[in-house]
Amino acid sequence: MAVTFEEDSGSPKERRDRTSFHATRTGKILWSMRDAFIDEHMLPFPQQYPFTSKYLATVRSIQFAPYGKDLPSGDSSKQSYPNAQVTIQYSTPSVTDQLQQDPVTERIDAFTKHIPLDHKQFQWGAGTGKPVVSRREAPTRVIRGFHYTKTFRAVAQLPETLLTYIDCVNSVAVVPTSVGFENLVFLKETLLFNAPQITRTVDRFGEVAVQLSYKFTCLQNWDIVDHENPPEDPTALGWNAWFRAETQNFEHMYRLDETDTDKYFRPHPAKNFLDIFS
């Protein structure tokens, strides 16, 4: 049953400024219906201001006081009154308020990719004399990985080194410090920094907020020489290893006359992205 709310004369009062809209409603309800009134206006979501649809203002606070000159009744220790004076405050959240509700978010999206295997190493059926698998019939090897995104909302200033991270991999193992990801370890050279995403939002009042998303792709590319008896703790070769069809394994590849230090994906030289994960 809805709580009866008797709105005062002169209510509501509205105020608009450069970045927000505010409204105040006052009125009377039964003192005993205070909890029900709060539930009605705040649960499961704050109620929207009913007198305009232009501004999506919702309930921010509800205040109660004894109504007029009502005297307390019943048990004096409980200080009960016949009626309550109600003050309801509404306002619109600014774009910064909305972004700061979740200042940092993290997301993991798993993926797979398929690498065609050498068709000459397979045949239809066991034993000798069986037909060899054609190139278009060759099976694939499934490579598993995941995309890791860390988003900072309402960023005040963009880092100067933002673009220098692109195409770099971590030169040592990195452990995220965020709650829920403590057991996640990015082994050496398995984490590739992709181009970041920068979003600039301007609300209807002209307030500006900037959101920054760091995007990584993790590929372990395990070194497993014997696939029939794989080791319990294989080595992750990371992004600087490619699948070699002849050996059916991941191996390091270099340009002609290059040394072991000339890697295709550059290991990050300094902070190993720790300034992002901290």
Could you walk me through the main structural features you see in this protein, from its secondary elements to its overall organization?
The chain is mostly beta strands and 278 residues long. The chain folds into 2 domains: 6-92, Alpha-Beta Plaits (2-Layer Sandwich), CATH 3.30.70; 99-277, no CATH class. Helices cover 7% and strands 35% of the residues. The chain has 3 helices and 16 strands. It has helices at 34-42, 95-100, 274-277; strands spanning 6-7, 13-16, 21-30, 58-66, 83-91, 104-116, 140-152, 168-169, 191-193, 197-202, 208-219, 222-223, 235-236, 241-244, 249-252, 266-267. A hairpin with a 4-residue loop joins β14 and β15. The longest helix has 9 residues, at 34-42.
